[in-house]
What does this fold into?
Amino acid sequence: MEADRAIVDAMGNRWKAKTTLLPEAKLGDLVLVHAGFAISLVDEEEAKKTWQLIAEISEFEDTPNKVSG
Amino acid sequence: MVQIQPKKSAETMKAGKHEKILLAHGGGGQLMDELIRRHILPKFKNDALAELGDSARLNLPCGVLCFTTDSYVVKPLFFNGGDIGKLAVCGTVNDLAVAGARPAALALSLIIEDGFEIALLDRILVSIAEAARQSNVDIVTGDTKTVEAGAADGIFINTAGIGVRIADADLGFGRIAAGDKILINGTIGDHGMTIISQRQDMGFQSQLASDCAALASLTCELLENATGIRFMRDPTRGGLAATLNEIARGAGLSVEIREKDIPVRPAVQAAADMLGFDVLTIANEGKFVAVVAPESADRCLSICANHPLGKEAKIMGEVIETPDVPVVEMKTRIGGRRIVQMPYGRELPRIC
Amino acid sequence: MLDRINKAQSMMNAACKAMGRQVHIMEVCGTHTVSIFRNGIRSILPGSLKLLSGPGCPVCVTDQGYIDIVLELADREDCIIATYGDMIRVPGKDHSLETKQAKADVKVVLSSEDALQLAKDNPEKTVVFIAVGFGTTAPATAVVVKEAAAESIDNFCILSGHKLVVPAMRALLSGKNHNIDAFLCPGHVSVIIGYGAFAEIVEDFGRPCVVAGFEAVQIIEGLAEICEQLSSGKAELKSIYPAVVTEKGNAAAQRVIEECFEPVDGFWRGLGKIEKSTLKLKDKYERFDAFKRFDITEAPAEEARGCRCGEVLCGLIEPPECALFGQSCTPQEPVGPCMVSSEGACAAWFKYSRKRAQKP
It folds into this structure.
């Protein structure tokens, strides 16, 4: 992460995202990205409930993304 | 064609080494001759081409001939899993393959921009040769033209292909009947999402790779070892959604598919979701949809599963009677139902 | 997961049966509309539960007058139009950005940042960023306006068409319309504005408001929660998207919107004028305001006579009851938002009505 530019990892796809709206985001955080901006931290416990659901269906849809760089 | 003197340094004006394509390379004269003999011919060794006649003479086995053409204008030229050259061969081979033919020969036309790097051209030609070799098909004739810089996005390629239909293959909309099963040989959306991901303005990198591949060996194996194959088509532009709608319309029957039986790679689905695309509308270059008689379905599936290009094959759904206008309907993962429409033709990322 | 869906379905069936009448729930988010469609959710809801697709697609409710301004700017040699993909096919009087694209410099961007970068990369042209979207996208615009100011990127400006969803909800509920029983509220807008923003709808109008995410399960559970509330006569504010939605929302985002924008009256396609429903750049940032830079005023395009989108949106009439439906208003040549949006009520009806009797 550099200043407010971050790389976010989602299912192996790496996207550019700005963290200007989420100054508290740190490496390794799960974030929700919209239009190139991280707009919210994702509560891991709650997200797991959704993930598990989707893993059961088959695979992922709107996946919360991991901040990785 | 008017020969325009290219602006070049004294060094490269000497006969021999050129690093970039010049307009003169398309002029039918010395430079073009050199381009063909030095760069093109050696990669496509075959008798028909070696003659360099105005037309290639082919000795084809008797039967119904299938004939097709396609132009390739993909950008970027090189992508994960292939390039415009491989695409140009596989795309045309696949059109022959799904028509039930064994591809025999390809014609190759190049339209190249002034200033295009010859090293890149070589890479593309090598790719074409390799793809042709793998498909067991010869490039027997071709054409090269050059245009001003900016007129061809680097390079445009057209290939025309001819093949001989496999005896007994009788494919067509008219053969499709209610109860027929719909099969796909693998995951959807790989090619289109890879291309999108590799365009600079999209801002994402991924491990996605195009599924670009020549399907003839698999389709021929199916046709020779199974009966009841009614129809085949490759879901390229417009994706699976377009192909299924074409089938419904052509056969005058409805189609019902199950979302859970459509193979999709998680990374492809995630990328499509991020951009708001419907993965059903994304292009594929190594896939075909086959409509087969219900009693042949299992056999076809097992032939696919035993072939490198069919390992993830699935029966996605079936053809059904229609009360009125034929529709393509999908049973979603959650048990709901939705109509799968013919895509507009230009899918754009959605944000709002 | 299917267990959760089945459970929610049972709840809905029971609640709707107990109520014994048609129930109308409106969603006001384009992403919800798409997800509902793609998952085929309507087909598994109880027959008496009608899901209305409200004015949730910000692009679809963008007034024709605004589009015509965009098209005029697109005609200018000195402008590059930067826009989200959603906008490309929205119709103006004669054209859409798509039909203009051959001759004009129109670039699809995924982020407001890309638009600013275009300005940096093309100093000899003016980049006009078509800033549409609800609360989720407005902060992204505000951030780049501030960046443009800080870095003095003077060849950048925005044409603000950002709309606010709560005023629209109020407008729909005012007047004689009592058809809407409850709202399924947008997940990502709530991330920004906080679910507390919908409290006034619950308090002033007594309608349940439930915030849900975009997964099929979340939407269905949201609807079940609403049905429960309705059948027990309750009207409460609730969020079932705790993974990312809080009551207060994203403070940094709200601050930046507050700093750059102020709400003014705006025109919505199909709904007319809604008070304090559109964001306008504050004077402090007026040099980035395309309206001021090019001296344009947005006058609403003449309300297409006969367009009854407002009534369709509220579920007061079905699409075929509108005289324009299928005649002068079709998916190929849409007039109102219900047809502009490919998942809008009219577009959906148009595509499916001649086919199976089953509702989409």
